[in-house]
Amino acid sequence: MKSMLLDLQNQKYITQDNENPNGDDVFRKKLLVDQMFKYFDADSNGLVDINELTQVIKQEELGKDLSDCTLYDLLKYDDFNSDKHLALEEFYRTFHIENKNLSETK
Ligand SMILES: [Ca+2]
Ligand SMILES: [Ca+2]
């Protein structure tokens, strides 16, 4: 499901950006997650809350395509510090983006 999300973002944002000679997948992935996070974080306060997720789900009608796994699961399972918000760091962790501060866990 998470890879589906990344694919969605890929289709949206990375259309003519395939020329990267080194094919730095990790960097591209991080960029995607950054863009996704900004997109989710409607009020740009650095946290994605349940209302913002709901907005995204409505806009994208993701519920239809991802019937067995919704964006709410992101908040349910990937809210690592259980504050009911998803921070960018938690997004990184969710999508396994290597980060100096988060290198201990996968
Ligand atoms: Ca927000
Ligand atoms: Ca959190």
Q: Might you state the CATH topology name?
A: Recoverin, domain 1
Helix content: 40-55%
What sort of overall outline do the alpha carbons produce when their principal axes are compared? globular
CATH class: Mainly Alpha
Based on the structure given, which CATH architecture is correct? Orthogonal Bundle
Individual helix count: 6
Portion in beta strands:
under 5%
Please write the string of helix (H) and strand (E) elements: HHEHHHEH
Low-confidence stretches: none
Name the bound molecules: calcium ion
Topology, number of strands: 2
Strand order of the largest sheet: 1-2
What kind of assembly state do the chains in view correspond to?
Answer: single chain
From the alpha carbons, calculate the radius of gyration and give it in angstroms: 14 Å
Taken together, the total number of domains comes to 1
Structural class: mainly alpha
At the fourth CATH level, what is the homologous superfamily?
EF-hand
